[in-house]
């Protein structure tokens, strides 16, 4: 049984939530483009964009990892790191009085998930065990 669909669905719902948040702020401020100098909208836009910049590549890499028949536990660990990292980052950056620990921890978890997944995939190719 594959585990990645669970994480893809959760991340998809988070993305939709971030989208609704940005749309809601745009409607409230009556802005269709840009941020109009509003700091909260600027942060919402950046959280949404940053999520969209990192998650697709991470999901592709995790899919490749899962397709190599690696342990489900390994996929769970890396995918969980990604989800927690994205939530912490989104929370941290969303705050007007940002506590940097959330943003930093979120980015570290996201990057570690990407790096570890890439390293395992490279090892698979190097060892010639790629399916």
- pLDDT below 50 for ≥5 consecutive residues: which ranges? none
Mean pLDDT: 92
Order of helices and strands: HHHH
What is the number of independent domains? 1
CATH superfamily: Membrane associated eicosanoid/glutathione metabolism-like domain
Under CATH, the topology is which? Four Helix Bundle (Hemerythrin (Met), subunit A)
What proportion of the residues form beta strands (DSSP E)? under 5%
Q: What general outline do the C-alpha atoms trace?
A: elongated
Tally of DSSP β-strands? 0
Main location: membrane
Organism: Undibacterium cyanobacteriorum
Subcellular location: Membrane
Keywords: Membrane, Transmembrane, Transmembrane helix
Provide a descriptive summary of the structure in words.
By secondary structure, the protein is mainly α. The protein has a single domain (about 5-125), classed as Membrane associated eicosanoid/glutathione metabolism-like domain (Four Helix Bundle (Hemerythrin (Met), subunit A)), CATH 1.20.120.550. Helix content is about 80%, strand content about 0%. The chain is built from four helices and no strands. Helix 1 runs antiparallel to helix 2 (about 40-65), helix 1 runs parallel beside helix 3 and helix 3 runs antiparallel to helix 4 (about 100-125). The chain is elongated. InterPro entries: MAPEG-like_dom_sf, Membr-assoc_MAPEG. Keywords: Membrane, Transmembrane, Transmembrane helix. This is MAPEG family protein. Its main location: membrane. It comes from Undibacterium cyanobacteriorum.
């Amino acid at each position: 049984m594959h585990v990645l669909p669970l994480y893809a669905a959760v991340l998809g719902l988070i993305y939709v939530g971030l989208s609704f948040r940005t749309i809601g702020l745009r409607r409230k401020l009556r802005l269709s483009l840009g941020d109009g100098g509003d700091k909260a909208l600027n942060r919402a836009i950046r959280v949404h964009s940053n999520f969209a910049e990192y998650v697709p590549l991470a999901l592709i890499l995790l899919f490749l990892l899962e397709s190599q028949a690696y342990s489900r536990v390994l996929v769970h660990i890396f995918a969980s790191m990604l989800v927690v990292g994205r939530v912490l980052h989104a929370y941290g950056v969303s705050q007007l009085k940002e506590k940097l620990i959330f943003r930093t921890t979120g980015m570290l978890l996201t990057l570690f998930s990407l790096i570890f997944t890439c390293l395992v995939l490279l090892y698979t190719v190097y060892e010639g065990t790629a399916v």
